[in-house]
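JOB MANIFEST
job_type = single_chain_structure
chain_count = 1
residues = 322
[input]
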Amino acid sequence: MMLGQNESEEQVAIVKKKYGFDLPITYQYLYYLNDLSPLSFHASTEDHYTYLNTDNYKAFQLVKLENAIVVAKLPNFRDSFQKNGKSVAKVIGETLPNTIILAVASIVIAIATGLFLGVIAANYKDTFIDQWLQVFSTLGMSVPSFFSAILFAWFFGYVIHDITGLSMSGSLYVVDDFGEKKMIVWKNLILPALVLGIRPLAVILQLVRSSLLEVLQQDYIRTAKAKGLTKSKIMQKHALKNALNPVITAVSGWFASMLAGAVFVEYIFGWNGIGKELVDALNTLDLPIIMGIVLVIATMFLAINSFVDVVYAWLDPKIRLG
């Protein structure tokens, strides 16, 4: 893959030696962990795979041993098989910000709309409005994102394009006709953000409704009503905050999942994010990029869920951090 038309037995042997592909699989795995580790060991001779070329990698030498050195460095995700040896870290660095922007926009839409509609559904329980919102949320959770993406792209980007001015596909950055300047096109964010936000919106709506209905039956709510507080004051000061715990759980899980779940949405809309990059890597068997993206998404997932544990303690005084 890396050599293309220049492949020969000699060139293949050189590449295998350079990347350690001529070693047993157990050694390859341990060397890969060593590359990922911020604290790693490297041989001092050029003929060994773990030789550290400081011109290519920013590393700080900590200890010098007899045949090796111990360094502190950023994780090394190695190089792409397909992109002319481009580093995986650079590929992720160029696409991850676009996915984060898309995920943040989607979750903001989902939270704002889901909270609003959830409160309305709880206030108008068992009415026509509540029943209509239940149907909407059920459809939102049931329809796959890639199918919604196709429908939205076709309808808003093609059928009523003259009204919306939206395109069927397009990324955040667009290069001008001369290929010299990058321009930000914010309207390309609208459709993928709406599509990606539909499913978490539906979940948040259902959770807010059920949680609020449960909280509104508590004794302290009856006490607040007996004191003469208005319905809006009770909702704002007492009920809504105490009903947010399951919502926070859902939001954290969905935001982390969006970083991985944006794969098909990004691919359909041509959004140049980490999801589209992952699909391209899967189609071309670019294993270093696949492994690098999975590791980055998993790390972010853990970080987000750890942050949520802190938010729990703020929302619910009964929870104490261990």
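[summary]
The chain has twelve helices and five strands.
The longest strand covers residues 59-64.
exit_status = 0
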